[in-house]
Amino acid sequence: MAARYILSQPLALAVDVAMDEGLDVEALAQGLELDLKAVQRTAYMRVPWESFAIFLERMEEALGGAFVPAMTRRYLEQNPFRNFMRVGGLFCSPQLFYKMANHVFGPMMFPLLRFEVEELGNLGFRVVTTLPPDVRDCPVFFRICGEFLRHGPALVGMAPARAHYVFGVRRATFQVDYPPSLSLLARLRRFSDAALASRAFMEELQAQGERLRESYDALQESEESFRTLVERSPDGVMVLHDSGIIFANDALARMLALRRGLELVGKHMETIGAPGYDVSALLQQALEHGEAVALRLREPGDDAAAAVPVEARALRARFLGRDALIATLRDVREREASMARAIDTDRLVTMGTLAAGVAHEINTPLSYVQANLDFLSELLEDITDRPELDAAAAADVHASLRDARKGVERAIEITRDLKEVGREGESRGEVLDPRLSVEGALRWARAEVLHVARLQMALEACGEVMASRRRLSQVVLNLLINAAHAMNSEERQRNLVEVTTFASADHACIEVCDNGPGMAPETLERVFEPFYTTKEPGRGTGLGLFVSREIVEEFGGTLHLESEPGRGTRATIRLPQHQEATRSTAETSAS
């Protein structure tokens, strides 16, 4: 594959011309992969051909017909090898000059071009210059080459050559007739000039050597700094080229239960992705959006290895002379464990907050049972004393037993909900109707809400989602408790809490609204921060909304709050319906 770069000296010449003509070089380089300051410092750095070609096209447009003559004039005035050529001109014939141009300087400066040279005896030569088919064409570049070939002999004090050009889009043919060599008298005259110039020439050679050494030392220092930084980074770093890993630090290897990053070099990046995670697509997403993505990795070749959740970022850069994708990977296992602990803490706090209400909810059906059992006891005594009451008493017995059974079933249902919410451990997603989670939360929070407000419900069908019933109930429960705690029980008849479910644009939605005092904008901005609370001591930890949003986002959804002082608060949960849920959950489960 042909190189896709040139050396920086031709671009530095173009930059000088642009500055001479009063053009804004920063504007000309806008959006291009060019470091203009570095280009002007050294002639030996690599510059992408694409950026060079676009820069020339922009100058052509800015200067019109004056661009190529300006480049030629600057080329002759700013001859970087003037001292060398002053000495070399003593011995340099036109033939030798063009051989150096065609076989040395041209291929060195423009390694992506193909040069085909045909010698025409002592008369001249023909050279065909071709661009690769997969790079940007640049007709103005060929025009500049033609002028440089024509005026090149002037660098060594000879007359310009006669040149004929035939330009195409990617191919140009140049035929050059050699100018006459210097006469003997001219050579002798220049000999004295060369003697004076030799000291300056040696000083320039020495200065160029110093600059090259400084550039090399700076490059070595930069490379060592990069390696030190990457190797000591606690985050994993890998460099990818054509989907293969060409570099990996030891931190990434340790994440995957390996010893050294070298063990990953040469492997395809998909071999370290856990099942269900397209590493290539997710890193491309991180690159395009400039944001971290969640994925899971595992030791390559070990299907039984535990998946490691990571947060990945990506960027494009040059690495060892190649275009590469550099990915940083942060181990988030401790973060996930901390979030699990925060969820459990919030759940326990919620259970404590609702303890009195739950006791009331259980006490009510048990009172049904006790009252009906007392009634049955008295009725059985009456039946023994008055046999004529048998038929009527049988109906009462059945009714009392039905009421007692309902009370027991209600107590069992509350106990089951209590057990479900209080259960610890990971909650995996399942396909469910979100109304089941809402109904469970309502059974728990009913007493807490009804103590301070009226409660209205409109639970419409909203489709199925991929979520945890227990954790979704925890979210709704937090929203109901917040609504109840925001209102004063003395205004119970005015206070209202509304709970609704509905479908909207392939999403299942749950809304909890209240007409309480609402929140000021500065409070609304901070409500999702961990440990931030406006409640009085003993009524909250500040984890409720933070945990709720994390739970909803874990299953690919969003939690949004709207609030204004004096107008209440609206909390909206949006979860992708089942056909969208599987993909969204895979992308976000490690976040």
Observed structural traits:
50% helix, 18 strands, 591 residues, five-stranded mixed β-sheet, 19 helices, alpha+beta, single chain, five-stranded antiparallel β-sheet, disordered C terminus
Descriptive report:
The protein is of the alpha+beta class. About 50% of the residues lie in helices and about 20% in strands. The chain is built from 19 helices and 18 strands. The strands form five sheets. The chain has a five-stranded antiparallel beta sheet. Strands 13-15-16-18-17 form a five-stranded mixed beta sheet. Strand 5 and strand 6 form a beta hairpin. It is elongated and about 140 Å long.
Quick take:
The protein has 591 residues and is an alpha+beta fold.
Secondary-structure topology with pairs:
Layout (H helix, E strand, L loop, with lengths): L4 E3 L1 H12 L4 H4 L7 H6 L4 E3 H15 L3 H11 L4 H7 L5 H16 L4 E6 L4 E7 L8 H13 L10 E6 L3 E7 L6 H49 L3 E6 L2 E5 L1 H6 L23 H11 L3 E5 L10 E12 L2 E10 L1 H21 L1 H31 L4 H33 L7 E3 L1 H17 L3 E6 L5 E3 L1 H17 L10 E9 L2 E8 L6 H4 L19 H11 L3 E6 L5 E8 L1 H11 L3
Parallel strand pairs: 13-15
Antiparallel strand pairs: 1-2, 3-4, 4-6, 5-6, 7-8, 7-11, 9-10, 10-11, 12-14, 15-16, 16-18, 17-18
Helix pairs in contact: 1-5, 5-8, 6-9, 12-18, 13-14, 13-15, 15-16, 16-18
